[in-house]
Automatic annotation (TrEMBL):
TM ranges: 7-25, 37-55, 62-81, 93-116, 128-149, 161-179
Protein name, per record: Maltose permease MAL31
Database matches in PANTHER family: MAJOR FACILITATOR SUPERFAMILY (MFS) PROFILE DOMAIN-CONTAINING PROTEIN, PLASTIDIC GLUCOSE TRANSPORTER 4
Protein family per UniProt: Belongs to the major facilitator superfamily. Sugar transporter (TC 2.A.1.1) family.
C-alpha cells in the first residue's frame, strides 16, 4: 500500500510536469532549466535525510506525519495556484520544490522499507512484485489523465491540480493511521507473530512478543 500512496501523492505531476509548468508560468528557458536541476538535488538531500532519521523517528511516524505535512504543502500549492499574480506563481514554484524535498524525506523513502519489512519472508518476492505492479498501473493511468487535467487547452487546472493529490493524500492518511504498523527494530519472526495475532497497527511499537518476554525471563533468571 505505501507504494500506491506514493502514486497517489502527486509525484507523477511534480516530477513529470515541473518544467512544463515553469514554461506555462512564464519562466525563461534558462531559469526553467536551473529550477529543474534544483529539483532532483533537493530530492537527493531528502533521501539522505530520511536515511539519517528513519530509525530514530520510526517508519510509521515518518510515513504518517510526513505525508500529513506533504498534504498541507499540496493544499497550499493548490491555493496559490488559484491566483495569477507573480508572487503567487512564484509561491507555487517554491512549494513544488519544497514538496520534492519533503516527499523524499517521507513517503518517497519509507515506502520501500515498509514494503520489504511488512511482507512475510515466504511471500516477499510476490508481495514486492504486486506492489510495484500496482504502483506502475496507477502511474500509467496518470500519464493519460494528468494532461487532460493540467493542459491549458483542456481542464487548465495548472497548479490547482495539487488539490486533487492533496485530497488523495488525506484519505491515504486514514489508511496509514489505522493499518500501517511500526516495523523498525523488529525481526521477521516478531512481525509474523504480531500479524498472526492481529495486533492493531498502532500497538506494534509497544507490543511485547513471545521472544521478548522469553528474553526478559531469561535475563531475570540469570540475575538471581
Amino acid at each position: 500500500m505505501p507504494l500506491i500512496i506514493q502514486a497517489f501523492s502527486g509525484i507523477a505531476w511534480v516530477a513529470g510536469y515541473f518544467t512544463y509548468y515553469l514554461q506555462l508560468a512564464g519562466y525563461s528557458t534558462s531559469m526553467s532549466y536551473q529550477l529543474q536541476i534544483a529539483q532532483p538535488v533537493l530530492s537527493i538531500v531528502g533521501n539522505l535525510m530520511a536515511a539519517a532519521v528513519i530509525d530514530k523517528v520510526g517508519r510509521r511516524n515518518l510515513t504518517l506525519y510526513g505525508l500529513g505535512i506533504l498534504t498541507v504543502f499540496l493544499f497550499i500549492t493548490g491555493g496559490l495556484g488559484t491566483g495569477t499574480t507573480q508572487p503567487m506563481i512564484k509561491g507555487t514554484v517554491a512549494f513544488i520544490l519544497i514538496y520534492s524535498w519533503w516527499y523524499n524525506v517521507s513517503i518517497g523513502s519509507t515506502a520501500f522499507s515498509l514494503l520489504a519489512e511488512t511482507s512475510t519472508s515466504r511471500l516477499r518476492a510476490k508481495t514486492v512484485a504486486i506492489g510495484y505492479a500496482s504502483q506502475n498501473s496507477i502511474n500509467v493511468m496518470w500519464q493519460f489523465v494528468i494532461p487532460y487535467m493540467f493542459n491549458p487547452d483542456k481542464a487548465n487546472l495548472g497548479a490547482k491540480i495539487a488539490f486533487i493529490f492533496g485530497g488523495l493524500c488525506f484519505f491515504s492518511l486514514l489508511y496509514l493511521w489505522y493499518f500501517q504498523p511500526e516495523t523498525g527494530g523488529r525481526s521477521y519472526e516478531e512481525l509474523d507473530e504480531m500479524f498472526t495475532k492481529g495486533v492493531p497497527a498502532r500497538k506494534f511499537k509497544t507490543y511485547k512478543t513471545t521472544m521478548q518476554m522469553r528474553n526478559e525471563t531469561t535475563a531475570q533468571s540469570g540475575s538471581h
